[in-house]
Amino acid sequence: MALTDFDLVLFGGSGDLSMRKLLPAMYARDAANDLLAESRIICVGLEACSQQDFLRMVETNAKPHIKAAALTPQVWARFCARLVYVSLNATDAASYGALAAALRPDQALTRVYYLATPPQLFARICENLAANQLVTPGSRVVLEKPLGRDLASARRINAEVGKVFAESQIYRIDHYLGKETVQNLLALRFGNILFEPLWRREWISDVQITIAEKLGVGNRLGYYDASGALRDMLQNHLLQLLCIVAMEPPTSIAPDAVRDAKLQVLRSLKKFTPTTLVQDIVRGQYRAGHVDGVSVPGYRDEPDAPDRSRTETFVALKAEIDTWRWAGVPFYLRTGKRMADSLAEIVVRFKSIPSSIFAQPAAKSQANCLVIRLQPDEGLSMNLMAKTPGDGMHLKPAELELDFREQFSTPRMEAYERLLLDVLRGQLTLFMRGDELEAAWEWVAPILDHWENDHSTPQPYAAGSWGPAASGALLGRDGLHWREETLPED
Questions:
Q1: Cβ(43)–Cβ(82) under 8 Å?
Q2: What is the domain count for the chain?
Q3: What does this protein do (predicted)?
Q4: The pTM is what?
Q5: Per the annotation, does 145 bind a ligand?
Q6: Fewest beta carbons within 10 Å, which of 164, 406, 446, 471?
Q7: Alpha-carbon gap, residue 439 to 436, rounded angstroms
């Protein structure tokens, strides 16, 4: 679908997210000739800054994040001509006159307000936009995470933003849903008959979803120490991936059909009990160690970190979905910082063969598994048992590999490119609905309450490892292993 003319307003337009992700994403779509010549990007910030000073800031902070192959003097000049800087105080309604003057008065234009700001500013910004008559029928608002820190704050954000914008105008962004592989998961499940008969409890042993990072908290410690891994990653990214893996076939790819199917998964997740809160959840915090052979400090040794911080940098848990399709199938979710590798993947492991006709016993055969890699290299692989060459019938694990970059020559869009295009086109499929957001928070709320009240501390793990030993024991109780524990040594 072609784009129409738009004014895209970036609140936090001089901030880190805009410079690293949003402006490079819009440049990429400009270089691909997706944007009309008249469309503009209005960057809003608190700092008093001239237009020329802002463009120099963009050149210094955003340009290095643009792929070199896409950079040309002609496109860069065209892109910079789209940019307008407006200084205003987001909490002061009177200062929005500067934004009103920068916006074009044509009511038919698509207006998008992207709030790359702390969530406590969402309501005030929306109220001030309405007070200045800047919300048109075709306006849209994009909300960046964190979308609250608990169920009550998420409900408050939904209610306050909902006073100004209709649900059909609200785009709650989760950049993981913009990744090519996540959408290929939809294609894999619902565009092929091969997997549907097997995509259920009779044939699947377990599902593992991992988002691991080698990096520590870096310069995000102020934010991270108040949130932790569960709020930062699991409540949103990991649960959204779980929903796509587990949802029933939607009636179509229409936004509400897909989001209804995801909501049903969230509402079908088994509630935690006092026993499972202890047994089925592991939280950890990294200590000093080595990543890629380099010595790195522990979390509490990071600059400005509290000496007795109880913030988790790792969380792993076992989830179950109480439906006919998935009853009894464990879903293991895991995320952490300062891990042994940086990756995001979904592992669907099928049940083992019931009996072997070969010399080796069935127990020696590796179960088939489908691995969906989201990063660093997007692709799919299927692990099978195959005969080794030579005399005799000896089986060995083999891998069928699909690398999306090798298979498709079409240039690939980054997640924010795709999601920004969808916002500008008015396509809501890849964005969370308000009831989805609240259902996710409702499910994790008992975990947060338990951690708050039991006063325990996260289990330590060495930087450069795969997390606390209890993480492996979580699966070991079910006779299972994390995928890296089953891979052959290099």
A1: no
A2: 2
A3: Catalyzes the oxidation of glucose 6-phosphate to 6-phosphogluconolactone.
A4: 0.93
A5: yes
A6: 406
A7: 5
